[in-house]
Amino acid sequence: MNRTETRQCLLLHSLPDASDALLTRLLLHYGKVQSVWQSQPQDWVELGASPATIRSAKRIQSAGDLIEAADAQMATLESVGATIIALTDNRYPTLLRMIYDPPPLLYVRGNAALLQQAQLAIVGSRKASPAGVRAAQLLSGEAIATGLHICSGLARGIDAAAHAGALGAGGKSIAVMATGIDVIYPSRNRALAEELVQFGCLVTEFPPGSQPQPHRFPRRNRIISGLSLGVLVIEAALRSGSLITAGAAMEQGREVFALPWSMFHGSGRGCLRLIRDGAKMVQNFEDILEELGPLFAVQQEWLPVENRKKEPDQKLSAGQSRILAMVGFEVTTVDDLAVHSGLSTAGVQAALSVLELKGRIKRCPGGYLHC
Fold first, then answer.
1. pLDDT confidence of residue 312
2. Which of 31, 38, 121, 179 has CB 3.0 to 4.6 Å from 151, enough for a Cys bridge?
3. Around Cβ 3, how many Cβ atoms within 10 Å?
4. Does 341 have pLDDT greater than 70?
5. Is residue 37 within 8 Å of residue 46, measured between CB atoms?
6. SS3 letters across the chain
7. Which residues pair with 318 in a beta bridge?
8. What would the mean pLDDT of 77-100 be, rounded to a whole number?
9. What whole-number distance in Å separates Cα of residue 26 and Cα of residue 5?
10. pTM value?
11. Bridge partners, 110 (sequence order)
């Protein structure tokens, strides 16, 4: 997107009384942000524009009102290396476009192409227990091994652990922010955010300079679930943002997963509630892969050819190659593989997950078979 288009997007986002629903209708009706500004604002009435919005749009077209403010915001975007993706842009993530209320504009720092790739959302309590943090790091690392990226909300606790687990496994992670792209919240995660810019991306629907406000976090949560094939809730209280994310996922038709906790673990009761209400209980990553493996292939068919994730079928790690060689045309158990491969049980399971996703082996009662 060039500077003129960026300015036009910022001006569109700054129109008074212009709801996201109106901006979405304008973009879908006219096709491009340039075409919106080339149209007659009085024609926007049919799309639901208020008199105040129309008057402001006319002033922008005739007298250049709000240009100075838009240029200041553009300078901010340039200073942090951010870009804007409009709803009608072919870079806009396909899964997110399919939700009921997709953001009309996204602000992105880092590798925006990741937004089109298969993601697992991992969310949970800000006051996470050591066990919750460990689970988030472990499961995010195993997801990375299968080719999924990790999406979360940059909050402290489970979110931060999920991002860190993905990066620690050599993968990519996406952080959805409830602030402007230039405002890192919480500030304690600033170093993590900068690492995500380098090895993933930050994304938000809020314009530059937007500060954290309570009503923005639930809106952020629908984007986390909207970008992802499924949402895993690691640890959550009965009243929490994580359950809001899970609720949004259910409304969007996404898979919802939850870890089981003791009834005496207060921060795990939300997970028990989700399992009661139909979320899939997760005891290991295999439970997630069982649901998301087929969806990964379907998602790739929706994407433009240039955005499809290329499966590195011929580039297996040494451990994966060792496991593949040991899985024959008779059922091979995980225990046998752990005993004879020299890998840990966790290492064997991670390798099996990758090989299953690549279609090299298949799961069957009691173990695995070579395809």
1. 36
2. 121
3. 11
4. yes
5. no
6. CCHHHHHHHHHHHHCCCCCHHHHHHHHHHHCCHHHHHHCCHHHHHHHCCCHHHHHHHHHHHHHCCCHHHHHHHHHHHHHHCEEEEECCCCCCCHHHHCCCCCCCEEEEEECHHHHHCCEEEEECCCCCCHHHHHHHHHHHHHHHHCCCEEEECCCCCHHHHHHHHHHHCCCCEEEECCCCCCCCCCHHHHHHHHHHHHHEEEEECCCCCCCCCCCHHHHHHHHHHHHCCEEEECCCCCCCHHHHHHHHHHHCCCEEEECCCCCCCHHHHHHHHHHHCCCEECCCHHHHHHHHHHHHHHHHHHCCHHHCCCCCCCCCCHHHHHHHHHCCCCCECHHHHHHHHCCCHHHHHHHHHHHHHCCCEEEECCEEEEC
7. none
8. 94
9. 15
10. 0.80
11. 201
Which amino acid does the sequence have at 244?
Answer: I
Say if CB 356 and CB 363 are below 8 A apart: yes
End-to-end CA distance of the chain: 45
Conformation bin of residue 211: beta by default, left when phi > 0, alpha when psi is -120 to 50:
beta
User: How would you class 366 by CB atoms within 10 Å of its CB: exposed for 0-12, middle for 13-18, buried for 19 or more?
Assistant: exposed
Burial (CB count <10 Å: 0-12, 13-18, 19+), residue 280? middle
Q: Give the number of other Cβ atoms within 10 Å of residue 331's Cβ.
A: 13
What pLDDT is recorded for position 310? 43
